[in-house]
Write a structure and sequence with these properties.
This protein is α+β, with helices and mostly antiparallel strands and 155 residues long. Helix content is 30%, strand content 35%. The protein has a 7-stranded mixed β-sheet, with helices on both faces. A hairpin with a 2-residue loop joins strand 6 and strand 7. The radius of gyration is 15 Å and the shape is globular. The N and C termini lie far apart (34 Å). The relative contact order is 0.16.
């Protein structure tokens, strides 16, 4: 398997479908998240990023909410974006895809004038996000039956 891949904003319908397919594989298939809560109204307006191998195989995805869409997740602070739905396929883990996706989301947040990015991390992924500069805050909480912590990175 080639380890060459690129990350881009998912702007066309095929890219967005690839993002949703990765999320279905990882969150619904592997983690047992109910499909009816995996996809939400935010998907229509979010900025989605997609990691793809040179042959077109989707390897990972993530999304950025900003403006009013993010305010419910960021305590109403319109200068903070919300990173979410970060997923990397099993075959692509360990290749740096997750970090590349987070970087692309942070670049998109900076381009929109945001001062920070928040996320809700599954507790098993805290170390990954800490290595990328995110700091946990608040109490642990369940989301889709999985323990999470809120984290923030100032850009």
């Amino acid at each position: 398997m080639s380890t060459e891949y690129g990350v881009r904003v998912a702007e066309d319908p095929a890219d967005r479908e690839a993002c949703f397919a990765v999320r279905k594989e990882v969150f619904v298939g592997e983690q047992g998240v109910p499909e009816d809560i995996e996809y939400d109204a935010y998907d229509a307006t979010a900025l989605h990023v997609l990691a793809v191998r040179a042959d077109g195989t989707a390897l990972g995805t993530g999304r950025l909410l900003y403006g009013g869409a993010a305010s419910a997740k960021t305590g109403g602070d319109l200068t903070v974006g919300s990173l979410g739905r970060l997923a990397v396929t099993r075959e692509a883990r360990g290749l740096g895809v997750g970090a590349a996706l987070v970087g692309a989301i942070e670049d998109a947040a900076r381009a929109r004038g945001l001062a920070a990015v928040d996320l809700h991390a599954q507790t098993h992924a805290l170390g990954f996000y800490e290595r990328l500069g995110y700091v946990a805050y608040g109490a642990e909480f369940p989301d889709a039956g999985i323990p999470h912590l809120a984290m923030r990175k100032v850009l």
